[in-house]
Amino acid sequence: MAAAAHTPASRPHIPVMLRPILSAIAPVQGVWLDGTFGAGGYSRGLLDAGAARVIGVDRDPLAFEMAAPWAGDYGDRLTLVEGTFSQLDEYADVPLDGVVLDLGVSSMQLDLAERGFSFMREGPLDMRMSQSGTSAADLVNQADEAELADILYHFGEERASRRIAKAIVNARAIEPFETTAQLAKVIEKCLPRSKPGQSHPATRSFQAIRIAVNDELGELVAGLEAAERALKPGGQLAVVTFHSIEDRIVKRFLQARSGGAGQGSRYAPEVVQEVAAFKLTPRKAIGPDADEIDENPRARSAKLRVARRLDSPAQDVDRTALGLPTLMTR
Length: 330
Ligand SMILES: C[S@@+](CC[C@H](N)C(=O)[O-])C[C@H]1O[C@@H](n2cnc3c(N)ncnc32)[C@H](O)[C@@H]1O
What we know:
By secondary structure, the protein is α/β, with parallel strands linked by helices.
């Protein structure tokens, strides 16, 4: 397929939080891995700011089709790998100076109706970032009602999860789901119309189904662990999240791996202090400034967390402490 056939007609891609990332990690040097290459905004930003080399990873082959016209300009400073960031340590040929992750879908993916991510655009109910495996249509046509309700509740924080799951099961008994519009219509009927300024009623459910189809939270935990293995002492990890479920996981992972989980409380004083693998730099999440929100409304919900790798061996994290939705811990 020619890249031009996919070119989204709408706005050009503006990388979210790139400026704050570059200032938090300055001076930019050495070998970086960009685990969510997308339109290549971070990879280019890192290379232009002084990284010697960037390994750009994405699970969506479209990302590399779109990069074909410019990727060669960087010669062997840019290597592209089709794969998931949960395995990022396997793509790193040297201990890394840095890892960046910019979670979720790209505007490129959202804008293409045929990828089926958006309730605003009629297209096949697909949502697969990698363009392979179980699609959103497979999931909503096959999962049982209780599983659907759990997905909507835990991955979308949708309070009407049971009502929507029941409506989906009733609707598919008449006609299986094939399109985004079919699903959006069934969800809309279950919820009050949104007021001005509120999000569309299908927003939370579409997010939940997308997270389930792409195992986004499983990928995130495994990706953070892989980054811990791949970074050299002094190497930096920068993660941008877009909703509270994923931010909670990153925050708790970094707290746990920076010794914070061991502080315990008056009621549980004997919690064992873990050996710190990261230092938070800065301690708190960074949000977009007003100029960035003006320029790019998609940045509104973004949170950036940055940490520096310390000189202790990598370990897997205790997953029960991460705030993973119960769907994933039982
Ligand atoms: C928000 S976009 C990244 C945009 C990029 N930072 C830029 O400035 O162009 C997220 C990208 O990450 C990819 N992605 C999401 N989860 C992934 C995973 N687990 N492994 C690899 N790629 C992933 C998506 O396919 C998408 O292209």
